[in-house]
Amino acid sequence: MSRIRSRLALFAVVLAASLGFGVASHAQLDPKSISVVPFDQLNWRKAPTGVETAMVFGDTTKPEVYGMLIKWPPHTTTRPHSHPNDRYITVLSGTWWVATGPKYKPETMVAQKPGSLVTDLAGQIHYDGTKDDVATIYIVGMGPAPTIPREEK
What we know:
This protein is mainly β. It has a single domain (2-20, 45-148), classed as Jelly Rolls (Sandwich), CATH 2.60.120.10. It is built from one helix and eleven strands. The chain has one helix spanning 2-21; strands at residues 45-46, 52-57, 65-72, 81-82, 87-93, 96-100, 110-112, 117-120, 126-129, 135-142, 148-149. The strands form three sheets. Strands 1-2-3-10-5-8 form a six-stranded antiparallel β-sheet, with helices on one face.
């Protein structure tokens, strides 16, 4: 299992780095060798909360590796929850805030700046989101990846 974790973590770092550097000219690329989808042409889906997601590869509902982008609007957070598998997260832009534990206390959230690498460990309780700005994160994980509510009132 640690071998899978290591490969997923390495893949997350490499993909996040490549998203940050871009490509100088798409005209020089052989489409039989590489596929490029510009960030602004991804298939974004907007939830009622305003959070937008774009699947890069895989399916979070199936037992397979997946990669997804999430754009968080300002002042949007989740409530305490967990996931059954590790999730490897790279903050691409903005400030993304995270906290741990079953009690929702937004004042305890810790800022994660662009380039930060965060791992949501399997079964552990956390919550996350934004404060005053938009944040975009990239997640790589193993499905199925349901969000399991774990808040204690």
